[in-house]
Give the backbone structure.
Amino acid sequence: MTVATARAHPNIALVKYWGKADAASNLPATGSLSMTLDIFPTTTTVRIVDRDLDRVVFNGAEREGTVRDRVVRFLDHVRLLAGREDRAEVITENTVPSAAGLASSASGFAALAQAASTAYGLALDDRSLSRLARRGSGSAARSVIPRFAVWHAGSDEQSFAEPVQAPPIEMVIATVDAREKAVSSRDAMQRTAMTSPFYPAWVTSTAQTLESALEACRSGDLERLGRITETNALRMHAAIQGSDPSIRYLTPRSWAIFDAVAQLRGEGVLAWATADAGPNVCVISPPEHTAAVAERIGALADVVIARPGPGVRLQETDA
Ligand code: PMV
């Protein structure tokens, strides 16, 4: 095959990945747990071409500079695995509000991993595909997997994502600000690890937290998983804020949503908030409470409801 199209969805971590054990191959300092969404897909076509240079088209515009460089580096790794040198054209349609803390790189590199490995003739199993996606963006390892995924820390061989069972959860996503964030997660992670005195505590506590979260998943304990989710997110943001110079992703509007979620809990609605490297807030709840959450949070920000979604899939190519 010389052309392949794949579609992947973003994922939101319930136990976060923040910090690398190895930057070159994106090995995480700790494992993480996530929900793959059923909204905001990225669709990517990779076509092997008779050209001297790779071509990268993102939402209809040809890209140069750092975006292209990152894709080319990824393709170089695929070419190494496939033992080939031909160049490719990569055409991506992304529906995620890019770089606003809604994991556009996760769906992007999961789709690219599937499309590029197929176009270059590699038939990767889910583990190898997840390991490959990880090299593009750490969190992309989890977007390969449907519904809920645990991504393991460890060596290159060990660090892939795989499915886990979780209690029934839906997610209300509150878009506080869809603009590009000021500090990329890559740079902020590095600054946190280098300068935040809270980073070592973040790593040790998150390794334990992941074990508790997996136990909560096994026993179907939604309330325990919910508490873990919110606490883990706030610990990550505390570690990030402890950087020098400090980085703050959450804005007063984000905090207002965390407050509203606490208030909902006080009224008996089961809901817990989390936020990635941006101001947007995601609220998990059991399906029977989602409408109440969406209504309350909808007064503070634009909201959409996400359910557990599919893993990365090959599509018919029509481009
Ligand atoms: O893989 P990256 O570089 O997009 O980093 C993801 C970091 C967080 O979204 C903040 C946490 C996570 O586990 O997804």
